[in-house]
Design goal:
Blueprint lengths: L7 H8 L5 E4 L3 H10 L6 H6 L7 H9 L23 H19 L6 E6 L6 H10 L4 E5 L6 H9 L4 E5 L10 E5 L1 H4 L11 E6 L2 H10 L6 E5 L32 H5 L5 E4 L7 H7 L4 E3 L2 H4 L8 H12 L5 E4 L9 E4 L8 H4 L13 E4 L5 E4 L5 H6 L13 H8 L38 H10 L5
Parallel strand pairs: 1-2, 2-3, 3-6, 6-7, 7-8, 8-9
Antiparallel strand pairs: 4-5, 10-11, 12-13
Helix pairs in contact: 1-5, 2-5, 5-6, 6-7
Length: 466
């Protein structure tokens, strides 16, 4: 669902119904910093930070980012340090605290389970993010957009208070040359690391081949899978084989891209189905296929508790009611190179009229790719940054075509848009699965909004009797 859409409020609302609520772990350091700069009107960020168990961290974060009453509307947000191989203590501390805050608030006041979702493609913040979520007692870790074989072992070591390392993908690396992100919880905690609960790990996969690889070759125990089809929101796995586009410019998926559920069942691990399963009756269908349940995102993305701006939610619901809402699977928008689902909404980055004068920039850096410089050190570049900068760093000009600043676009979609020197706000980028066209089905007569609990009630209502 992007960054900050499935936030602590939505995850808690889902968990309180007895289901697994999952918070998005993407860009939480930036989200926490901007919530504090907006004044933290309800005090929830500061209240959760007071529970952070490592001394000195909360005081530093508040000194750096909290603005009583909020920043002026025309003032830009203070930027957080950019993630990298050596991000520095301040960024690591902010990342750990931000993940702790999100999970702590999602778990507060009930006995339900809470998970957190990460992208394997966003590697630099992974280790401190996992530690922060585990400090708050997260129950599940879900990860996709890559092959996260190292993560189960990382969870094992963090639970035991041991140092961890994660191999980082570096473009242009020489044979035998390896780069690692490292984190030592004992050093961060001042000499002694706590023993933590090891969360269950669920790999998000699009094929039986990937599920088999994770089950057999991961560094630790894999506890199950989310099997995601190409109609799901956010990043999609590319089609197998040579990329072909339809008349509208979207990737063409075929029978080879449908996961072989029989082979996944043979692994003996639970799995959940995702991608257009947010319809009444689909849960029963998934159970009959041997799944433990379903993962639903899009239906919740536009409910009252989600982090998307209220005006965008209303725009989406109105277009859905009118049968005029469209989702485009954009093969170019994301700097990751993965196809990315983009809602076609006026006034957003999907609107050519709105993007004609949009300036490129890379000031958040979550989707930057590390590359090897000629001197053996690492540099960072993003196909969505200014074209001249990307080329100067050795990037190919063709890679910049059609790229959007996903990082800033997702921040804008949740009301945390950056403002530039021309007093212009970043345009939002809204991602959702193909089911977005039908989200108005959750509106009751005379209502213009719906709750997470109402979504769950509708989905459970159509379960076939045993």
């Amino acid at each position: 669902m992007g960054a900050g859409v499935s936030d602590w409020r939505l995850a808690r609302a889902v968990s309180q119904t007895g289901q697994l609520g999952v918070v998005s772990g993407t860009a939480l350091a930036t989200i926490l910093a901007r919530r504090l700069q907006n004044g933290d009107a309800d005090g929830q960020m500061r209240r959760a930070l007071e529970k952070f168990p490592v001394s000195g961290i909360t005081e530093k974060i508040l000194a750096d980012y909290f603005i009583p009453g909020g920043k002026p509307a025309n003032a830009p947000f203070k930027l957080t340090p950019l993630p990298g191989l050596d991000s520095g203590h301040d960024y690591v501390a902010l990342t750990i605290a931000a993940n702790f805050v999100e999970v702590f608030l999602a778990k507060e006041g009930h006995a339900g389970f809470v998970g957190i979702n990460f992208l394997e493609k966003i590697q630099f913040p992974t280790l401190p993010s996992l530690f922060g979520a585990m400090l708050a007692g997260v129950d599940y870790v879900l990860m996709g957009a890559g092959i996260p074989r190292a993560i189960p072992g990382v969870l094992d070591r963090l639970a035991r208070g041991e140092s961890v390392a994660l191999k980082i993908d570096i473009e242009g690396g020489l044979p035998g040359e390896e780069f690692y992100s490292k984190f030592d919880p004992a050093i961060f905690c001042g000499g002694s690391a706590p023993l933590l609960k090891r969360p269950y790990f669920l790999g998000i996969v699009a094929s039986a081949t990937l599920a088999i690889t994770l089950a057999r070759k991961s560094s630790g125990q894999v506890n199950g899978f989310v099997v995601e089809g190409e109609t799901a929101g956010g990043h999609n796995a590319p089609p197998r084989g040579a990329l072909q586009l339809n008349a509208d410019g979207e990737p063409i998926y075929g029978p080879r891209d449908v996961a072989d559920l029989e082979k996944i069942r043979e692994l003996g691990l639970p799995f959940w189905l995702a991608g257009s399963y947010g319809n009444p009756g689909k849960l029963s269908e998934a159970l009959q296929l041997g799944a433990a349940g379903i993962q639903v995102g899009t239906a919740f993305a536009f409910c009252e508790e989600s982090g998307i701006c209220p005006d965008i939610k209303q725009q989406v619901l109105q277009l859905s009611r009118a049968g005029e809402l469209r989702v485009f699977t954009d093969p170019l928008a994301s700097p990751t190179g993965f196809p990315f689902k983009v809602l076609q909404l006026p006034g957003t980055l999907s609107d050519a009229r709105s993007t004609a004068t949009t300036n490129r920039r890379c000031d958040l850096g979550y989707l930057r790719q590390a590359y090897r410089k000629t001197d053996g050190t690492s540099g960072y570049r993003c196909p969505a940054e200014p074209v001249d900068d990307f080329i100067r760093k050795g990037g190919a000009p063709a890679e910049t075509k059609g790229r959007e600043c996903v990082c800033n676009g997702l921040m804008a979609a949740i009301g945390l848009a950056q403002i530039n020197s021309e007093n212009e706000l970043s345009l939002p980028l809204v991602t959702a699965g193909n089911d977005a066209a039908h989200v108005a089905r959750f509106l009751q007569s005379g209502r213009n909004s719906y709750t997470a609990a109402e979504v769950i009630s509708r989905l459970l209502d159509k379960i076939a009797p045993a």
